[in-house]
Design goal:
single chain; mainly alpha; 2 helices; DUF3311
């Protein structure tokens, strides 16, 4: 397994590892309870992480 693919485990750790940390209502962030904000944050970060993996994966290089 390439080290780049290990980035794909970050969202899993963020979602499941951080739920016990984020399982509370306060503080409100952007008008959202903290748990809801935490979930939305990790959905957005997952997209960014997957884009980074796709960008730097040598299997996705275009042939010229």
């Amino acid at each position: 397994m390439r080290p780049l693919y290990l980035l794909a485990f970050l969202p899993v750790i963020g979602f499941f590892g951080g739920l016990s940390f984020a399982n509370r209502v306060e503080p409100y962030v952007l008008g959202l309870p903290f748990l809801f904000f935490w979930i939305i944050l990790w959905v957005a970060l997952t997209s960014v992480i997957m884009a980074v993996i796709y960008r730097f994966d040598p299997a996705n290089k275009e042939e010229l």
